[in-house]
Structure formats: C-alpha cells, structure tokens
Amino acid sequence: MGRLFIFCSFCSQAAISLANNKGDLGGVFKDLMSERAMRSLATSDLAASIIAVWMPLSSSRRLPAPLTRRRQSRTMSPMS
After folding, report:
1. Is 42 within 8 Å of 77 (Cβ atoms)?
2. Which helix (H) or strand (E) holds 51?
3. What residue spans define the domains of the chain?
4. How far apart are CA 52 and CA 3, in angstroms?
5. What is the pLDDT of residues 23-39, one digit of tens each?
6. Of 10, 77, 15, nearest to 41 (Cα)?
C-alpha cells in the first residue's frame, strides 16, 4: 500500500513536469531526477510508512455502521 502512494506521487510529478516542459521528455527526466523531486518522493515514502503502520491500529476500533434501514415515518391515518 505504501508503494502505491509513492507511485502515485511520482506519476503526478511526471504529469506536472510534462505539462510545464511542454512535452519535452528530457526536461521531464531532469525534473524527476532533481534533488527537490527526490526529497518529495522520500517525504511520500515516509508518510506512506506512517499511514501503513497507523491504519491497522485504527481499524481495530470499530466505527458505528451507517444506518441501513430508513426510518419509518409515522403517518396518521384518517379516522373512520
């Protein structure tokens, strides 16, 4: 799961870089290999690792299930 976050971060950086460089793949490669991009990926990895550790712990707490039945409204029937 954590690697998926990193992959998504990398893909979004690539898409933004492709748009900024107007389709120049050399510029995209240079942007993706820059120190700033590597720091961003490292931050994504750290965040994904924290989330991956936290999620199993939080899923042990059960949250209330959503209401599945509609409340039946009480309608008054006309008196006969």
Report:
1. no
2. helix 35-59
3. 2-59
4. 10
5. 899 999 999 999 999 99
6. 10
Nearest to 11 by CA among 36, 39, 41, 35: 41
Can you tell me the distance from the alpha carbon of 9 to that of 37, in angstroms, rounded to the nearest whole number?
Answer: 10
Other Cβ atoms closer than 10 A to 17 = 19
Q: What is the pTM of this model?
A: 0.57
pLDDT tens-place values along the chain, 80 residues long? 567 777 888 899 899 999 999 989 999 999 999 999 999 888 888 888 888 777 766 555 555 556 555 555 555 556 65
Residue 80's Cβ-side half-sphere holds a number of Cα atoms within 13 Å equal to 0
Confirm if 49 and 6 have CB atoms less than 8 A apart: no
